[in-house]
Amino acid sequence: MRLLIIADTHVPARARTLPAEVWAEAEAADVVVHAGDWIELALLDELERRSKRVIGVYGNNDGPDLRARLPEVARADLDGLRLAVVHETGQAKGREARCAKEYPDTDVLVFGHSHIPWDTETGTGLRLLNPGSPTDRRRQPHHTYLTAVVDGGRLTEVELHTVARGAS
């Protein structure tokens, strides 16, 4: 099962739409995971139309229309992998311990908000992933997103991608 993992797209505030390579990944993926800050409902509608399955949450910049359609925390079983998605996890310091305590029955927690790519594992085995942003890099050197594969309840082939310059 192939995953596309994105967050903090901020469409249309930071880009008119997603970069072409991200759309291609969305169309090829079995599941698209979006960790919030969509900004406009139209992106959710388009992603749902062009993808097999979307698992998403709202972020702090998302208004009532997105909050009416998306949860604050999403959970899914993906071929035995227990996934949770949330926009904010708080400050970086203490994140692993805090998330391990808050998500004890989770294998992978995808989060956003910081626009900073993140891939760590807690002492309990919880994997924390932040894809950065494909459209709003802030102080990061590149726009980014993640792809991964779920195989037999395990997350494999996690890869951070940089968006081609000028693509967003």
Overview of this structure, please?
The protein is an alpha/beta fold and 168 residues long. It has a single domain, classed as Purple Acid Phosphatase, chain A, domain 2 (4-Layer Sandwich). The chain is 20% helix and 31% strand. The protein is built from 4 helices and 10 strands; from the N terminus they run E-H-E-H-E-H-E-E-H-E-E-E-E-E. The strands form 2 sheets. A 5-stranded mixed beta sheet has the order 3-2-1-9-10, with helices on one face. Strands 4-5-6-8-7 form a 5-stranded mixed beta sheet, with no helix packed on it. The mean pLDDT is 95.
Question: How is this fold's topology laid out?
Answer:
Layout lengths: L1 E5 L13 H9 L2 E4 L6 H10 L3 E3 L7 H6 L3 E6 L2 E6 L8 H8 L5 E3 L7 E4 L5 E4 L13 E8 L2 E9 L6
Parallel strand pairs: 1-2, 2-3, 5-6, 6-8
Antiparallel strand pairs: 1-9, 4-5, 7-8, 9-10
InterPro entries: Calcineurin-like_PHP_lpxH (IPR024654), Metallo-depent_PP-like (IPR029052), Phosphodiesterase_MJ0936/Vps29 (IPR000979)
Pfam family, one: Metallophos_2
Family: Belongs to the metallophosphoesterase superfamily. YfcE family.
